[in-house]
Amino acid sequence: MSTASTRPPSSATSAAAMNGPQTDPLQLIDVDHVRFYVGNARQAAIFYAYAFGFQIEQVCDLTTGSRDEASWLLTQGNIRFVLTSALSKDHAAAREVALYGDGVKDVAFTVFDAAKAWERAIKNGGTSAQEPVTVTDDKGSITTASIKTYGRCVHSFVSRSGGYDLVKVKQGGVFAPRFKRADAPLINEHNRANPCGLKYVDHLVGNVEMGKMNHWVAFYENVLEFTMFKHFDDKDISTEYSALMSKVMASGNNLIKMPINEPADGKKKSQVQEYLDWHDNAPGVQHLALRTDDELHSIAELRRRGVDFLTLPDAYYEKVWERVNTMLTQHGHAAVREDHKRVRDLGILVDADDEGYLLQLFTRPLQDRPTLFFEIICRRGSQSFGKGNFKALFEALENEQERRGNL
Ligand code: FE2
Question: Which of 142, 175, 193 is the last residue of a domain?
């Protein structure tokens, strides 16, 4: 069982930075943040705080001199979400929310030198979304630069020093210029007393158009120098009615894994095609998988808060323990240690491979459009994505599509 590759992104950012000059400009230190474009960041912050246990930490808005956009920084464990709304119709967030609804705009990586990372990505064939910009003030210095990926999404490179160093941000320091601490909302106290236990972003799945999966696989290989981690074809991921194909790209140090899905032909509409239909036919992020060390605790707490999860038929639990425990025994691993009845009562899914097992559960879409959702995942050795659950899961998703009139 290998856990080293999936250890939470380093809390030793500064220690790594002090190891001397870096020769690989695309070495990723951490997921700096995930930025969402939303219709109303103030209200979205309340939703993610109450439903998912995020702390409302910092804000950047008119009161801090930001005239064109408002952003809220939410944190939990080593997860940083930035929720951004436009303050005028001409801001990109206003245009994109009109086209796609609320969703992920930027998966930003902390690097040693954002300008060098950007230069390397451009040299590798990437397209710039923003050239390097450095802001220095009395707190420190921060450099950002971005490249385009699928659809409206970008990857920003962020390098930080002084007070903006990521280690300091994790300790409560100011996230970026023009941010200030949000007035301590009561929900933060509640969340500290009732944690949901989400630790970091495990993986992040993109849905792309039919025939485009290999194009984006090549993009991650060539531009960001990722490697292929796993792939699944339509025989792995199909039901009687619908299908998709998926390849998993991983950063050099496995800091982040990015599966890329494309729809495949089936008798009825693929879940990926439904996403595209409600996303102005543009590719985008389908789900963020958030890692917990205790799936039962996290799911129980999230359910208590009213989070809406996919439900699977009871028949799923008639077969799952034999399937999973047989696989674990074959490979010399101990059986699933979580209480089987509680797993079933909480509606959690279980899967195993040669390295161990995992527990996972998927929310329903987080907004009215059937686009972005979250996965809550706990790994006990398995580095896979729940292949054994695909069929049961996709049948459940088809039921959802049916309910929405989209099958
Ligand atoms: Fe996933």
Answer: 193
Q: Which of 227-236, 298-307, 334-343, 349-358 has the lowest mean pLDDT?
A: 227-236
Q: What's the 147 CA to ligand 1 centre distance in angstroms?
A: 24
Could you give the CA distance from residue 250 to residue 73 in angstroms, rounded to a whole number? 26
CATH number for the domain that contains residue 302: 3.10.180.10
How many domains would you assign to the chain? 2
Q: Does any domain span residue 2?
A: no
* Phi, psi dihedral angles at 296 (to 5 degrees): -65, -45
- Asked if 318 and 392 sit in the same domain, the reply is yes
State in Å: Cα 269 to ligand 1 middle. 20
DSSP state of 382: -
Residue 293 CA to ligand 1 centre (angstroms): 16
User: What residues make up the domain containing 154?
Assistant: 10-193
Ligand 1 centre and the CA of 242: distance in Å? 18
Query: 174: closest CA among 63, 92, 257, 60?
Result: 60
Residue 3 within a domain = no
Q: How far is the CA of 126 from the centre of ligand 1 (A)?
A: 26
Question: What spacing in Å lies between the alpha carbon of 295 and ligand 1's midpoint?
Answer: 15
In this prediction the pTM is: 0.92
Q: Where are the beta strands (DSSP E) in 137-223?
A: 140-148, 154-162, 180-181, 198-207
Verify that 50 and 134 share a domain, yes or no.
Answer: yes
What is the band of 266 on the pLDDT scale with cuts at 50, 70, 90? confident
Binned at pLDDT 50, 70 and 90, residue 234 comes out as low
Is residue 141 in a domain?
yes
Mean residue pLDDT of the chain comes to 90
In angstroms, what is the span from residue 386 Cα to ligand 1's centroid? 8
Please answer whether residues 184 and 238 qualify as being in contact, where contact means their C-beta atoms are separated by less than 8 angstroms: no
CA of 326 to the centre of ligand 1 (A): 23
HSE (CB half, 13 Å, CA atoms) of 77?
Answer: 22
| pLDDT confidence tier of residue 11, bands split at 50, 70 and 90 | very low
Domain end marker among 151, 178, 193: 193
User: Is the predicted pLDDT of residue 131 greater than 80, yes or no?
Assistant: yes
Distance 205 CA to ligand 1 centre (A): 7
